[in-house]
Amino acid sequence: MKYLLFLFSAILISHSGFSQNVDSIDNRPIYIRFPSIPEFTIYKAPDSTAFTREDLHKRKATVIMVFSPDCGHCQNETNMLIKNINRFKNTQIIMVTYLPYSEMMKFYSIYKIANYPQITMGRDTKYFFPIFFKIQNLPSIFVYDKKGNFKQKFEGDVNPEKILEELQLN
Length: 170
Fold this sequence. Notes:
By secondary structure, this protein is an alpha/beta fold. It has a single domain (29-167), classed as 3-Layer(aba) Sandwich (Glutaredoxin). It has helices spanning 2-18, 30-33, 72-83, 101-110, 128-132, 160-167, and strands spanning 41-44, 50-52, 61-66, 91-97, 119-123, 140-144, 150-155. A seven-stranded mixed beta sheet has the order 2-1-5-4-3-6-7, covered by helices on one side. The longest helix has 17 residues, at 2-18.
């Protein structure tokens, strides 16, 4: 009997020790909990060379755009960014897709991304960005200041003016 009482007590104590208070779980997206540009690796168009956070220009604002080449809103957003590209001369734009290389390269060619040195396009082969940023809509745009601190998230079509306001460049 003492053995059963001891076993029951041990189970009860261990159960309460492993219980978590639901209020203590931080459900905020990772990019909010860790508000600096994350460690990442993408494979750049056109040559599939690795590109990481270490390759970003220091002291330049960064705009990360997660997109899909076949998404109409992503195509529209790319057109708007290109039309305003001169206003983003002090900003590096990282365009990331997780779709196949061939689809990314078609998009890269259609929009002549090679003509815009401040845009780096690459493939996220590990599906890092959708998880880190908790992507729900495309395009998803994340704005970081010159120090690499998170400023704002935009989903869907966004007027470049709003991005520039966040960057305080206009």
